[in-house]
Amino acid sequence: MPIKIQNELPAHKLLESENIFVMTDERAMSQDIRPLKIIILNLMPTKIETETQLLRLLGNSPLQVDIELLRTATHVSKNAPLDHLTTFYKTFDEVKMNHYDGMIITGAPVEQMEYEEVDYWQELCEIMEWSAHNVYSTLHICWGAQAGLYYHYGIPKYQLDEKLSGIYVHRVMNVFHPLMRGFDDKILIPHSRYTGVHRSEIRKHDELEILASSNIAGVAIVANKNGRQFFIMGHAEYDRNTLANEYFRDNNKGINPALPYNYFPGNDPRALPSLTWRSYATILYSNWLNYYVYQQTPYEIDQIKGFKD
Is 116 an annotated catalytic residue? Predict the structure, then answer.
């Protein structure tokens, strides 16, 4: 899938070097098609890294995707250059009158705080409510998934005994669900979090379905049966070294973290981690774009109707 992004975005050259089809504004304007409009609310502190990870997965289909990046106005990231944010990101006030085929809400390193203690929580609630009316299908990731389940369904999170970090095996619960098409019976997904949600709380809601689960990591993928919301508890988008970087960062802070599970060969942090989950991540994002964005959203994007309307 050619993804249309600004030529100056740092991810552009890296993705081109990986033979991922990135389209400039000039070329996109010459094509007589209606691209899928995807907006990414990036709550991660590593903005550029997260952009690249998600764009890599969105660039794997024959369809043209027009990407917009969204940031919170009530919280300014300390880890991203201000000129990068002002050049490539929009605020909610700038997009709230628009409609989008799809939206991604990323994770954030705030899961140990109560939701209401997060300084941009009220803004996020406004954005999540807007997504139910102006976006056809929304994909929530990690803390973004927990926040979405809490806001839309009142499902609480719970504190884990220790940080869940590593590559975990998950069983596909419904092999016939379109989001799960092409998967093996068991799939690998990275996790990096301190909190989770209980299966029993999800099962109280008839409109929700658990699509993948792990004996160790718990619930991994939850879907609204109408296809308008998906909640991914892990980080399928992570690169080979993302968990390693987090481990060494925490170690340098004196947190004394446990080695990520099933990650370093021989549990040797000096060894290069094996990239064992990329194919699953690629299928996951391709299925979402194909079955729940491209095939479902109306051609006239302003005709998108909210499932809460």
Answer: no
What is the distance, to the nearest Å, from the Cα of residue 83 to the centroid of all Cα atoms in its chain?
Answer: 24
Left (φ > 0), alpha (ψ -120 to 50) or beta: where does 279 sit?
A: alpha
Task: Report phi then psi at 140, rounded to 5.
Answer: -105, 140
Number of domains in the chain: 1
Chain CA centroid to CA 250, Å: 23
**Tens digits of per-residue pLDDT, 17-53?**
755 555 555 544 444 467 899 999 999 998 999 999 9
Say whether 300 is catalytic: no
pTM metric for this prediction? 0.89
Cβ-proximal residues to 30 (8 Å cutoff; 6+ apart), any chain: none
Tell me, yes or no, whether 253 lies in a domain.
no
pLDDT at 53: 95
Domain at 131, CATH number: 3.40.50.880
- Catalytic residue (choose from 49, 51, 68, 237): 237
Percentage of the chain exceeding pLDDT 90: 76
Catalytic residue among 12, 51, 142, 177: 142
Helix (H) or strand (E) holding 191: strand 186-196
Does residue 7 sit within a domain? yes
Catalytic residue check, 125: no
